[in-house]
Write a structure and sequence with these properties.
Layout (H helix, E strand, L loop, with lengths): L10 E6 L2 E6 L5 E4 L2 E4 H4 L6 E3 L2 E4 L3 H8 L9 H10 L7 E5 L5 H10 L4 E6 L2 H14 L5 E5 L10 E6 L8 H7 E11 L2 H13 L3 E7 L25 E7 L3
Parallel strand pairs: 7-8, 7-10, 8-9, 10-11
Antiparallel strand pairs: 1-2, 1-6, 3-4, 5-6, 11-13, 12-13
Length: about 250
């Protein structure tokens, strides 16, 4: 098996006890932490997945990059929700995905990674400040050049029929009528909102627009445990409620 070695300007995940750091291998600098110093130039040519002093050095996953690397101009969707969203929207290699509300670009990066080189992600963001920040994140961390970013109002976007659409805006119920024009029959639609009154408004909109069925509402909770064999127990704090997930399928009436 050929080991992948660290190169200058690579990203590395540095782990020390319960702390994690995402750093770029700048050969002119060092990393200083509670486990001592790392001289980045000494990492070059060495493999990922090794112990260097008190530090574990790994090749970052996409989750590491999203949680530790991207600059957040908006709240991001947590991995526990993000993975389920992709599953429910049936996003696979070669998928064409429409995202309405780019935010900081976290979900865009995940959509892009799953759709792959043969897929396409079109993401629409109205706010110019969010658009510029997301553009920097996507250009810095995207794996494939398959993302098209558009800075405009959602109602101004006119695109082909999509099979997978995700909406992450404050009042998504206003756009359901427009979504009908952008999707094919049987397309999968997903949304995320933080409060129950928003869910209620979405349900009312579904009642108005009769072109959606197979509606599902859920929330996902994740509790992590301390990895000490003699004292196995949950962490004192957990990321519980992050948002309500709403899914539906496009149907012809």
């Amino acid at each position: 098996m050929i080991e992948e070695n660290i190169k200058p300007d690579d990203l590395v995940l540095i782990c020390h006890r319960d702390r994690k750091y995402l750093k770029k291998v700048d050969i002119s600098s060092t990393f200083n932490g509670k486990g001592g110093n790392i001289i980045f130039s000494e990492l070059v040519g060495k493999p990922f997945g090794k112990l260097y002093g008190e530090y574990e050095i790994y090749k970052p996953t996409l989750e590491d990059i999203i949680m530790l690397g991207i600059k957040r101009d908006t709240q991001i969707i947590y991995p526990k929700d993000a993975a389920y969203i992709c599953f429910k929207l049936n996003i696979t290699s070669g998928s064409n995905v429409l995202e309405l509300g780019t935010g900081s670009g976290a979900m865009t990066l995940l959509f892009s990674a799953i759709a792959g080189v043969d897929g396409k992600v079109i993401t629409v963001e109205k706010e110019e400040r969010h658009f510029k920040n997301a553009k920097r994140n996507i250009e810095k961390f995207s794996i494939f050049p398959n993302v098209e970013m558009i800075n405009c109002d959602i109602f101004d976007y006119k695109g082909p029929g999509f099979k997978s659409v995700f909406i992450d805006v404050r009042e998504p119920w206003h756009y359901l009528g427009h979504i009908i024009e952008l999707t094919k029959p049987s397309a999968s639609l997903g949304m995320i909102v933080p409060t129950t009154n928003q869910v209620t408004e979405i349900l009312k909109a579904f009642e108005t627009h009769k072109s959606f069925g197979n509606i599902e509402i859920c929330e996902i909770m994740l509790r992590k445990y301390k990895t000490i064999s003699e004292r196995l127990r949950p962490f004192d704090r957990m990321v519980a409620h992050t948002g309500y997930l709403i899914f539906a399928r496009r149907i012809e009436t």
